[in-house]
């Protein structure tokens, strides 16, 4: 299994609706609204790196109100 943290910027006023949609994803382990340069930190798990990319491109980046993402792949066990 591969774990990734996805840092998400949302459009103004869309944080709650984006978070709600992210929590519906089966790959979501945890999601938190945060202060700072990003609005949400999302923890996902998938079977491999290709699955993380697929989830990111087809399920996460298509969410209405999402403005930008940055993905951090976990490299420790």
SSE order and pairing:
Elements: E1 2-10, H1 15-23, E2 28-33, E3 40-46, H2 49-60, E4 66-73
Antiparallel strand pairs: 1-3, 1-4, 2-3
Compact summary:
The protein has helices spanning 15-23, 49-60, and strands at residues 2-10, 28-33, 40-46, 66-73. It has 77 residues and is an alpha+beta fold.
Walk me through what this model shows.
The chain is an alpha+beta fold and 77 residues long. The chain has a single domain (2-73), classed as Alpha-Beta Plaits. It is built from two helices and four strands. It has a four-stranded antiparallel beta sheet with strand order 2-3-1-4. A hairpin with a 6-residue loop joins strand 2 and strand 3 (40-46). The radius of gyration is 12 Å and the shape is globular. The mean pLDDT is 96.
Key words describing this protein structure:
alpha+beta, Alpha-Beta Plaits, four-stranded antiparallel beta sheet, 2 helices, 39% strand
Assess the beta-strand content as a share of residues. 35-45%
Q: Low-confidence segments, ≥5 residues, pLDDT <50?
A: none
Residue-averaged pLDDT, rounded?
A: 96
Radius of gyration: 12 Å
CATH-derived topology: Alpha-Beta Plaits
Q: Give the overall shape.
A: globular
State the helix count. 2
Read across the widest sheet, the strand sequence of neighbours is 2-3-1-4
Whole-number total of structural domains: 1
Roughly what percent helix? 25-40%
Broad structural category: alpha+beta
What name goes with the CATH superfamily? Lrp/AsnC effector binding domain/regulation of amino acid metabolism (RAM) domain
Helix and strand run: EHEEHE
Distance between the termini: 10 Å
Q: Write down how many β-strands occur, each being a DSSP E stretch of 2 or more residues.
A: 4
